[in-house]
Give the backbone structure.
Amino acid sequence: MQALVYEAPKVMSLRDVPRPALAPHEVAVRVAYSGICGSELSGFLGQNSLRKPPLVFGHEFAGWVEAVGDAVADHADLAIGTPVTANPLVTCGRCDYCITGRQELCTERRLLGAHLPGCNADLVVVPAASVLTLPDGMSLQDGAMVEPAACAVRAVEAAAVGPASTALVLGAGPIGLFVVQVLLAHGVTEIYVADLNPARLRMAESLGATPIEAGANGVADGVRSATGGRGVTVAFDAVGAASTRRDCLASTAPGGVFVLIGLHSDETAFPVNTVIRSEVTLKGVFAYSEANFRTALDWLAAGRIGLTDGVVVAPLSAGPGWYSRLVEGDGAAKVLLQPGAGQADGAVGRR
């Protein structure tokens, strides 16, 4: 089979690799669409401790059941050809975190495309327990977006928002755009968004958010101006850079919540005394629980959330170019790679 292999910083190659072995409790999925995640861009640059070459990236996908292990052969819902997605966060299912519904904190967790071979390939193997069938009428493209949508569901859940909340979303990439939609689904109507890319800002605005321009002292100037000096009750950093974290903190009203999602930089200096004196709550959010993943699937299937504008579909062979373009700031909302879809100069579609 073919797979896109990360071989060194900024080096990815389409290669013929052995078909993955299938354990008794596993399912092989023929990949229809494989999304590029922002967290993988730092790996592409060689700046992510989890992703070491050689490695097949990818943890956002949908496709069809290709084969099942002996222990899952009797599962009617996993018949060959069934359209599916899968939770790429593989956990033990036995620890205190798993049995209390906080699977994202499992100390034995492993992620496709980091600890395990990912979905930038013709086939990907996952535990049968991780596989979810797509509801009737749900497209495979939407199925490939369940994972980033689940991240947004978890982030908003952690913030404990309500209709009276006001919010800043810093970073209008896929997760940021989904955070805007999940906030709206929770009744939050005063939502501000900031991003360096004008195309992504326009997407956020079309969803119902208000774009904020940075002032002399950063994004916080614009947020304070828009809110009569108060700031927002909850701020989401969907970038993870030192500057965006400081902007989010400076935009958060006393007693508010600052949710850290992005993983771009490991260390950031900001005024802790401000956190103390203003009683700001810092909430780190990593991935999602199984319940969050199911919610994201159900909401996408029902059309409550979703991405259409700015979605790029490209052949897997075009993957290296798209990783480079996204690192350089391309404004695509989401890039979906198609294994077996042609050569690098093949058709590329935008929704």
In short: The longest helix spans residues 146-159. DSSP finds eleven helices and 19 strands in the chain.
